[in-house]
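Researcher: Good morning. I'm working through a list of sequences from a screen, and I'd like to move beyond sequence-only analysis. For each chain I'm collecting a predicted structure so we can compare shapes side by side. This is the next one on the list. No need for commentary yet; just the structure.
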Amino acid sequence: MNEHTSKNFDHELESLRTLVLQMGGLTEQQVRRAIEGLYSGDKPLLEAVIRDDEQVNQMEIQIDDLCTQIIAKRQPTAIDLRMIVSVMKAISDLERIGDKARKIARLSLGLYAKSVAGPQDIELTHMADISLKMLRLSLDGFARLDVTLVTEAMRLDESVNVEYQSVARQLITYMMEDPRTISRSLDILTIAKAIERVGDHASNIAGYVIFMVKGLNVRHDSADEVEARIANS
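Model: Good morning. Structure tokens for this chain:
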């Protein structure tokens, strides 16, 4: 970021960046713990994920308030304004990622409470790993103002979608072959959809980083189109 005549302004912007990365790290941890609890049946871990979602919500409010204060006090322009707008959008997606972690934890508790085994042979960890890699790349790109990292994140979104479609087909087959699996399969399908949405939100954050750095609105562009626009900018 550019240095400003006011060192306090620089400090405020740096505090903003730090808070976003802290919130991102917390949501990433929440998703990881929810997936771990899904497979381990660790009830206290799953309950902690649900309980700690409030911390994510409070961070969103704190960061949003700070953005509003900076806009009112500093009247930022150019890249500084783009950064603040991007932050306000990104924290909304981070809050929703926290919601997805809570949903995964809640459904996992329900599976075990009904004495229904966990996902067993349904493989969700690989899809979760890709979604979380997308989030990590997007946050690293935000920290470094690196559009290469975030375009890599956006390219991974298709892999998450393919994984989700594979899981959905497998679960539909189970339900057709044995109606007794319908309740469990629907819960697992909802969990899989939550993981897929984590990837979507990470891709959104990647787009905000590109807007912040390059001033390009790429929300409806494919990864190839994004790379082409960045190259021509």
